[in-house]
């Protein structure tokens, strides 16, 4: 029998690196295929390409190939910074995956000036001999305009603050419609109850409110009341189609790319104080120990009695500062009882093994010119934790209720860690003298939770928490109820933020359909398809939003540190690689100490022990070590910060 020839030609999507090389993801090859910078054949990031594998003996760490043909161009426009000479110009791409500048002829400047953030429409794609050409189709912001850098990143991810005219028109019509008497008739009227919101000081869209009653039997009746956005966003209408496309609101420091127009998100759907609002409510009867004994899900109408702020409520709960204002006095008993219940709920959550990654998150403050003036650790205080516990419980309750009803639904799924990642985590933890207990194939979240408890308060806490978090799978949306490993829950969904997340809006739509018409075959068939589509689109939109938010954060942290070049800081080694050490400062800023700056010896990288070790002097730099650094260099566009260890710094003596 003739030997079957090995296949060499494949197709896939190209993902480029700013240094020029890239990788192609192919369905038929397990590992991504490496493409050298000189083997691109004019392909751009995101293009569908045909590749030929080079001989296997020439591969390094993974399969390698050359691009032989561009099958489909997926990039039609590029966002970047405009630069020009007298006769021509070019656009320097904002995306880190697009290395090559776009050539612009003078007739295609479209009024753009040097330094403007622009969108360029591709008119000629690059080949092996010529760069791409284009014409400027949009000026995002003028040079030096506050917030222009953030707007450019948002536009790079195709995130737009403005809405299509039809969606805007529908939103304005819904705002004018308001809350009508006919909308209230068949709802439970809760307008006389002590219901209020607790949010951040700068929040403008309030989609959740809470209430608490102490029952005659000593139990609590916790009410979680969520904006009934589905009443105003009609299925398959212009608003709904645009919301599904966006999938989520995106928060880029002081700029918001909302999922819904402000006429809804900040107005008629927002649970503003002293205004009638339509809601979906979940009443949960709980024992004083936090055990659920009963629940009810129903349509309601509320009138929020107050709009409270996290920091103020935390001051009241933590320090007893009731003198903050008269508006808190009527709610003192409610808030104290809520806090007491939340503590019990947190205790129960920890007992079942829920993982609490209490990582330091950054709070970056910008001035009116968009310049970062401070980078600090964001406070996660008593009031924040209290509302978080109530929302977790509501999400779990709704998920379990509809799971047993056997209707199509959208669940929030978090799978257990992959075996290979767990093995690497075990090796990493051993370098700190920590043992991860449990079988790799059936690890319980309690094992991870106990690790985080062991390092609480230690200098290595943030490093261990970060590496452990990276070992976890990413959560996603699914129509299958596969459980939430991190929360140690069998049933979980997102129900509490329909203004900001499309899955919550979809869930509300399903709930209302069941409440009005019960469960039938027509409902199941319809929502099975709609929920599956929403799950895929929303999961992808969430990943894109997280990427954009991180890019903006890195850029502004780098800009902040650019004003501190030559200054000294203490930090902790948060990462060790073959090319250097990552050091995290107390304010969460992270920078790189390049290995070639450690000029006193040749340092070897030990991947298993997460350390660098000098060959001659035996000096060791390992994860969790405290070091003193100087800020050496910053690249704001790339969000990169270079540090020097104090022992190797030309800035010595300046601290």
Automatic annotation (TrEMBL):
Keywords: Cytoplasm, Exonuclease, Hydrolase, Nuclease, RNA-binding. It is found in: Cytoplasm. GO terms for molecular function: exoribonuclease II activity; RNA binding. Its main location: cytoplasm. Residues 566-646 form the S1 motif domain. InterPro entries: CSD, CSD2, NA-bd_OB-fold, RNase_B_OB_dom, RNase_II/R, RNase_II/RNase_R, RNase_R, RNR_Ribonuclease. Its EC number is 3.1.13.1. It holds the Pfam family CSD2. It catalyses: Exonucleolytic cleavage in the 3'- to 5'-direction to yield nucleoside 5'-phosphates. Belongs to the RNR ribonuclease family. RNase R subfamily. 3'-5' exoribonuclease that releases 5'-nucleoside monophosphates and is involved in maturation of structured RNAs. This is Ribonuclease R.
């Amino acid at each position: 029998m003739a030997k079957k020839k090995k296949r060499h030609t494949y197709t896939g999507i190209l993902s480029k690196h700013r240094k020029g090389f890239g990788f192609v993801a192919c369905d038929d090859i397990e590992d991504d295929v490496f493409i050298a910078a000189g083997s691109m054949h004019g392909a751009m990031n995101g293009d569908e390409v045909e590749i030929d594998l080079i001989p296997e003996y020439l591969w390094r760490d993974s399969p390698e190939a050359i691009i032989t043909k561009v099958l489909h161009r997926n990039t039609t426009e590029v966002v970047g910074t405009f630069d020009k000479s007298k006769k021509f110009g070019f656009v320097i791409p904002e995306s880190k995956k697009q290395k090559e500048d776009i050539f612009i002829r003078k007739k295609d400047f479209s009024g753009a000036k040097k330094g403007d953030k622009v969108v360029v429409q591709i008119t000629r794609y690059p080949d092996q001999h010529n760069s791409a050409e284009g014409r400027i189709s949009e000026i995002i912001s003028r040079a030096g305009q506050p917030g222009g850098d953030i707007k450019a990143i948002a536009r790079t991810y195709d995130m737009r603050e403005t809405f299509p005219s039809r969606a805007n028109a529908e939103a304005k019509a819904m705002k004018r419609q308001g809350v009508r008497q006919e909308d209230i008739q068949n709802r439970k009227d809760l307008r006389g109850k002590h219901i209020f919101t607790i949010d951040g000081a700068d929040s403008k869209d309030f989609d959740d409110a809470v209430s608490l009653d102490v029952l005659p039997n000593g139990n609590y009746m916790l009410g979680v009341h969520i904006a009934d956005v589905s009443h105003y966003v009609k299925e398959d209408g212009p608003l709904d189609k645009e919301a599904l496309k966006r999938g989520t609101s995106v928060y880029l420091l002081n700029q918001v790319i909302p999922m819904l127009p402000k006429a809804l998100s900040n107005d008629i759907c927002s649970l503003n104080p002293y205004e009638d609002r339509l809601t979906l409510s979940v009443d949960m009867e709980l024992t004083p120990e936090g055990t659920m004994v009963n629940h009810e899900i129903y349509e309601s109408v509320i009138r929020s009695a107050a709009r409270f702020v996290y920091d103020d409520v935390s001051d009241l709960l933590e320090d007893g500062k009731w003198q903050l204002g008269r508006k808190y006095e009527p709610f003192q008993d409610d808030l104290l009882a809520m806090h007491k219940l939340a503590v019990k709920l947190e205790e129960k959550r920890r007992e079942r093994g829920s993982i609490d990654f209490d990582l330091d998150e950054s709070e970056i403050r910008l001035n009116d010119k968009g310049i970062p003036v401070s980078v600090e650790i964001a406070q996660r205080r008593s009031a924040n934790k209290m509302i978080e516990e109530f929302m977790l419980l509501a999400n779990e309750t709704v998920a379990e209720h509809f799971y047993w009803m056997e209707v199509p639904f959208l669940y929030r799924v978090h799978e257990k860690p992959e075996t290979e990642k767990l093995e690497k985590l075990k090796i990493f933890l051993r370098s700190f003298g920590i043992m991860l207990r449990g079988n790799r194939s059936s690890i319980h979240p309690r094992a991870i939770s106990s690790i985080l408890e062991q390092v609480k308060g230690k200098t290595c806490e943030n490093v261990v928490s970060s590496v452990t978090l990276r070992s976890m799978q990413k959560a996603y949306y699914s129509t299958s109820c596969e459980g939430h490993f991190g929360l140690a829950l069998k049933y979980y969904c997102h129900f509490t933020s329909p203004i900001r997340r499309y899955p919550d809006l979809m869930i509300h739509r399903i709930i209302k359909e069941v409440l009005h018409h019960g469960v039938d075959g027509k409902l199941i068939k319809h929502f099975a398809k709609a929920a599956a589509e929403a799950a895929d689109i929303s999961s992808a939109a969430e990943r894109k939003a997280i990427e954009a938010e991180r890019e903006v954060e890195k850029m502004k942290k780098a800009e902040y540190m650019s004003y501190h070049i030559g200054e000294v800081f203490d930090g902790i080694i948060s990462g060790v690689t073959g090319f250097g050490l990552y050091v995290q400062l107390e304010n969460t800023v992270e920078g790189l100490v390049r290995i070639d700056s450690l000029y006193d010896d040749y340092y070897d990288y030990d991947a298993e022990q997460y350390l660098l070790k000098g060959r001659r002097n035996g000096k060791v730099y390992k994860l969790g070590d405290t070091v003193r650094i100087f800020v050496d260099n910053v690249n704001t566009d790339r969000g990169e910060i270079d540090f020097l260890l104090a022992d190797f710094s030309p800035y010595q003596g300046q601290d």
